[in-house]
Specification:
114 residues; mainly beta; 2 helices; 41% strand; binds zinc ion
Amino acid sequence: MHFKGPCHCGAIHLHIEGDLVEAMECDCPICRMAGFLHWIVDETQVEVRARPGSLMTYRWGSCEARHYFCRFCGVAPLRRPRLAPARYSVNVRCLEGVHPESPPITPFPGRDLS
Ligand SMILES: [Zn+2]
């Protein structure tokens, strides 16, 4: 299936190919604060189209994870997870036409791992 994942203002557009069979809800502070709901996919499944200068990166702690967000609207549609830095985590809450609770949600104990 093909999914579109824009940020709020549309400066960033993700195009994702894959089957959304599961989402993960992480209990670490940034995921809770941002409301990030994870769909872990391979790099090859995601195409990122971003207006120049819109895609910003927030890094913290060990700096292994990368939290990408839009400079204009602040929405974070994409992540490089610390435990799988070669993959992407797409924010299910940014996917067009997808109710965030439609895929089964698995809790992820990120708070205990940080
Ligand atoms: Zn935006």
